[in-house]
Amino acid sequence: MMTRALLPIAIAAVALAGCSSEDPADTTAAPAGAATSSAAPAAGPSSAAASSAAPGTSSAAATGGGCPVDATALKKAFQANAEVAGAIILGKGFKDISCYQGYATALTQPEAMDTAVVVFKYDAAKKTWAALIGGTDNVCENTVPAAIRPNLKHCT
User: Fold this and answer.
1) How many of the other CB atoms lie within 10 Å of CB of 145?
2) Facing residues of 99 across strands?
3) For a Cys-Cys bond, which of 19, 98, 114, 142 suits 60, CB 3.0-4.6 Å?
4) What is the C-alpha separation between 120 and 81, in angstroms, rounded?
C-alpha cells in the first residue's frame, strides 16, 4: 500500500522537474556538450543560484551554440585573433558576458581608457569561440544578425 502512495508523488516530482522556472541553461556547472547524469538534479534552485553568481559567466539565456561561455574561453579566442587583440586593450579581462545562439559579447576592463565591447562567434564544427570585432560604438550592427542583437546586452 505504501509503494502505491509513493508512485504518484515520484511521477509528479519528475514531471515538475521539467517545469522549473529557473533557466538551467544559465548554469555553468557542466561545459556545453557534456553528458549529465539523470540521477543528479543539476538544475535545482541552489545550483542555479550558485552558478549564476560565478564571476565571468554569461547571464543571458543560453540557447545553444556554445552558451554559456566563460571569460577564460573568450580570452583565449580574443588572443587568437591578432587583429582584434592588437586594436583592443583587454586590461583586467572580460566582464559582463552575454551569450545567445552562438554569439557572445563581453566588456573589457582597461585602466584609464574607455571600455570596449568585443563580439564573439561560436564555431560548432570546431567547438571553439572566435573574436570577430571589438570597439566602443555599434560593434554588433554589421556583425551580429538582427534577430540575435536584442538578446545580447551590449548590442542594444
Assistant:
1) 10
2) 104
3) 98
4) 11
Compute the mean pLDDT over every residue in the chain, rounded to the nearest whole number: 72
Angle among Cα 111, 115, 120 to the nearest 5 degrees reads 125
Q: 33 has which bridge partners?
A: none
pLDDT single digits (tens) 17-30: 344 333 434 333 33
The answer for residues whose C-beta is within 8 angstroms of residue 125's C-beta and 6 or more apart is none
Strand order in the sheet with 128-135: 94-100, 103-108, 117-123, 128-135
Q: List, in order, residues 6 or more apart from 85 with CB less than 8 Å away.
A: 78, 79, 131
**How would DSSP label each residue in 115-132?**
--EEEEEEETTTTEEEEE
Q: What is the DSSP letter of 26?
A: G
